[in-house]
Amino acid sequence: MINQLKEAVQKIYDQFDASHDFQHIERVLQNAESILETEPKADPEIVRIAVLLHDVSDKKYTDSKENEETLLNSLNLSANQKQHIKEIIESVSFNGGNEVAAKSIEAKIVRDADRLDAIGAVGIARTFAYGGAKGRKLYDDNEEVRFEMSEDDYRSKSTASVTHFYEKLLLLKNLMTTEKGKEMAEKRHTFMVGFLEQLKAEREGRA
Fold first, then answer.
1. Residue 1: which of 81, 62, 80 has the closest Cα?
2. Please, what's the b/e burial string for 36-49 (b: 16 or more CB within 10 A of its CB; e: otherwise)?
3. What's the mean per-residue pLDDT of the chain?
């Protein structure tokens, strides 16, 4: 079932830009597998399915839940399992700090696995890939960083890519919910901070 689902979702993710393509899903799966090794009470199948489906109806690319509903309904799962997966997917998104609580261990694993791919070296690459796809500035020193915003504000304003680090990515380390996720986030966060310091130094002619 997992292999069949991989084939189906890849066709969807191949239509997205490089920040949310199928390679992103493969990395999140890898992160989830690492966390699963330390969370024996979690259901691995539910985690893997939720990872595969978590971006097929991403609000950045579609206003419809059709992809998620169609694929979920194609799986041989109980109604409770399908509802559980929907709740996991709903809890993954940051939403400008207006996130839905991750109540189950499976939801915590999927959320952490996804957020780990948003930070570190890959997170940096993804941020500028998405910014480039949307025609955003690399940086804007006159742009005010927002620490409180609605989901609509978060999604509607096309901020510069560097601003996104301060509005979301640098916050994620402290929002990890599993011990393994917290451990993995430390090095990636430190790398991001170093990158931003170097970028600032180069922009100011100090490096």
1. 81
2. beebeebbbebbbb
3. 95
Residue with tokens 């690459």: 125
Q: Which amino acid is at 105?
A: I
Please report which residue ranges of 37-178 form alpha helices under DSSP H: 44-53, 66-73, 79-92, 105-116, 120-133, 151-156, 161-167
Structure tokens that stand for 161 in this block: 């890519």
The residues, ordered by sequence, that sit 6+ positions from 190 with a Cβ below 8 Å of its Cβ are none
Which SS3 state, helix, strand or coil, does residue 131 take? helix
Question: What is the 8-class DSSP label of residue 85?
Answer: H
Q: Answer yes or no: pTM beyond 0.90.
A: yes
CATH 1.10.3210.50 fits 2-203, yes or no: yes
Q: Residue 44 is encoded by which pair of tokens? A: 């691995």
Residue-wise pLDDT for 60-107, tens only, equals 999 899 999 999 999 999 999 999 999 999 999 998 788 899 999 999
Distance separating alpha carbons of residues 143 and 122, to the nearest angstrom: 24
Residue 130 CB neighbour total at 10 angstroms = 18
For the chain, what are the domain ranges? 2-203
Structure letter (DSSP) for residue 137: -
* CA dihedral of 171, 177, 178, 180, whole degrees rounded to 10: 0
Secondary structure (3-state) at 70 = helix
